[in-house]
């Protein structure tokens, strides 16, 4: 399967202002991979490049990260809240995502909507050194940025987080189609975190990439396909008071009394529903 199946927006690939020859060559390679134009920075501001190329979307290749600039918004990979939840796991505190997915040591988890990668990092940590997370991302640009970030982001991160990031594989494509390619019982659990039907106003980092996201609602047929692929359970994250629970009818919704989000659970293979 090709890692990139088309670019979501017409981007110009360039570098940071101070770019070594090695960084320039890396940017050119990424531009070729994306089949996108490459612009030699030459100390030019982004405003200058905007005028020269009549384009307002840039993928900026920096030493330790890729940054997507779309107008005044920017997106780059960072473990974000995953770090705090990994620390909670180490303290043996409850982490709702791990509880909902019932992650055990050695589990293989399929994250059908990896997005920024935060949930995938937590899942990979919970699954331990013999576990693995496969993450599907619809947007080719987000997939590229997160894949590169998982490989190269190391500074100031704890060893457990770095190790978990190394156990995540990012696959670019439409999960509706990719799910059909997996044999029955391929993963212990399958996870969906689609864009909420009613977006959270204070969701940091999400607003900037919403225009690139797959906004189609999850369909019952996709849940059914996920149940075929999963050995134990399928889980979807949504707002705790969402109408999606009535539409999709999970077996259980796991949400705290004052929690803003909940996890819908479909049990597979006769698992005890507690």
From TrEMBL:
* Superkingdom assignment: Bacteria
Q: Which residues form the signal peptide?
A: none
InterPro entries to which the protein is assigned, alphabetical? 16SrRNA_methylTrfase_J, SAM-dependent_MTases_sf
**Single GO MF descriptor:** rRNA (guanine-N2-)-methyltransferase activity
Q: What PANTHER family does the database record attribute to this sequence?
A: RIBOSOMAL RNA SMALL SUBUNIT METHYLTRANSFERASE J (PTHR36112:SF1)
Give the protein name, as stated in the record.
SAM-dependent methyltransferase
Which species does this protein come from?
Answer: Heliobacterium mobile (Heliobacillus mobilis)
